[in-house]
Specification:
mainly alpha; single chain
Length: about 100
């Protein structure tokens, strides 16, 4: 088991307001973390915090976009699946005038 101390990054956490997380990871992933840490001259913990923070940001953005899309559906702001591809072909052919297409 490799234990990564995730408490040394002041950018995301106050030093007195931290928590140690332990995860079992594949040796190959641990080796990559070590290589990255050496290349960047940073600690394992710093690498892990950067990765975890980026993943959490990505998941929060994915959730925000999903909720936004669901709100659009609830409000009736949807594209008819039959019209969407036709509009794309129309634009690709260079004939798009900005006028809405007729629904087939």
């Amino acid at each position: 088991m490799i234990n990564y101390d995730l408490t040394d990054c002041g950018r995301f956490y106050e030093p007195r307001n931290t928590n140690v997380l332990t995860a079992h990871i594949l040796q190959s992933l641990a080796d990559k973390v070590d290589q990255m840490a050496a290349r960047l001259e940073r600690s394992r913990g710093w690498i892990m915090k950067q990765a975890l923070a980026a993943w959490i940001d990505q998941e929060e953005e994915r959730r925000r976009l999903t909720l936004e899309a669901l709100a659009d559906v609830d409000a009736g702001r949807v594209i008819d699946p039959c019209v969407g591809p036709a509009r794309g072909r129309h634009v690709d052919q260079g004939a798009h005038t900005g006028a809405p297409l007729q629904i087939p």
